[in-house]
Amino acid sequence: MSIFLFSTFRKTISRGFTLIEVLITISIIAIVSAIALPNLNTFLVEMRVDTEISELQRLLLISRNTAINSSNNVIICPISTKCSTNWHNKISVFVDNNNDGDYDAADTIIRVKGAIKSGDKLQYGKKSLVFTETGNLTGGVAAKPFSYCPKDHATKSRGILVSALGRSYVTSDTDNDGKDEDRNNKEITCT
Question: Which residues of 68-98 are buried (b: 16+ CB within 10 A; e: fewer)?
Answer without folding.
Answer: beeebbbbbbbbeeebeeebbbebbbbbbee
